[in-house]
Design goal:
Elements (H helix, E strand, L loop, with lengths): L5 E9 L8 H14 L16 E3 L8 E11 L5 H11 L6 E6 L7 H4 E11 L5 H14 L1 E6 L2 E6 H4 L5 E5 L2 E9 L8 H11 L5 E14 L2 E4 L3
Parallel strand pairs: 3-10
Antiparallel strand pairs: 1-3, 1-4, 2-3, 5-9, 5-10, 6-7, 8-9, 10-11
């Protein structure tokens, strides 16, 4: 951090219709919000200077997020309450900040530090009872791996590593909710809706995924899973 810069961390949601934005569109929208808020932000060096801002792991198009994060570097210290009010006023409701705070520059980056996420996957359909979906998920986990085909590439996920906690299935309106914790890493992140779809298909259940929401993201250090970035 250059002298006179302050690293501000913002927690926000990506919900409602804006869940369909791409990560790049979210980045641009929140950069514009920072400018509209009138904050004195730092810019990067080089031939094409731009606002100094960094985001946590990207969300796929269509996946909502309730506790997402970005860091923005300011050149003037402004009180937390004032920063929060300005950002709320300048940001679209479905991307609105829910908390802000200053963090030390030495703290690990969001992209590198966030390695665990909790998801809720909503399942609907004639066979979406809790017991049937639980049984289908258990069958997939017993296989030990999940192979995912994306365009011309194939990825194999070790489910023992990717799922550090046991999945939970709860009754919900019109079906059930699968709650699962996913560990991310250099090999990529297992998309929870693909795991659930594979389980439903392998068990020949008449059910489908209605929506996916990332409800929490965490730092993981020395075996401690649940440390919020802010």
């Amino acid at each position: 951090m250059a002298s006179g810069e302050y690293r501000l961390r913002v927690r926000y949601g990506k919900v409602g219709r804006l869940r369909w934005l791409s990560h790049l569109e979210v980045v641009r929208a929140l950069e514009r919000a920072t400018r509209r808020a009138g904050l004195k932000y730092a810019v990067t060096q080089g031939f094409s200077p731009h606002i100094k801002i960094a985001f946590g792991p990207a969300l796929p198009v269509g996946t909502a997020g309730e506790n997402e994060y970005y860091d923005v570097w300011l050149t003037r210290y402004t009180g937390i309450d004032e920063v929060f009010k300005r950002l709320v006023d300048a940001t679209a409701e479905d991307l609105a900040p829910t908390a802000v705070g200053y963090v030390p520059e030495r703290e690990v980056s969001l992209a590198a530090g966030i390695t665990v996420a909790v998801y809720h996957v909503e399942v609907e359909g004639r066979d979406s009872e809790v017991g049937k979906v639980q049984s289908a998920l258990a069958g997939i986990v017993e296989l030990g791996t999940l192979t995912v085909q994306h365009r011309d590439k194939q990825k194999v996920f070790d489910l023992t590593r990717s799922l550090p906690e046991e999945m939970r299935v709860k009754e919900a309106e019109g079906g059930c909710t699968v709650e699962l914790t996913v560990r991310m890493g250099p090999e990529g992140s297992l998309r929870p809706e693909l795991l659930v779809r594979a389980a439903l298909s392998s068990a020949s259940l008449d059910a489908s995924v209605r929506s996916t929401t990332r409800v929490e993201t965490y730092f993981e250090s020395e075996g401690e899973l649940h440390t919020r970035p802010l």
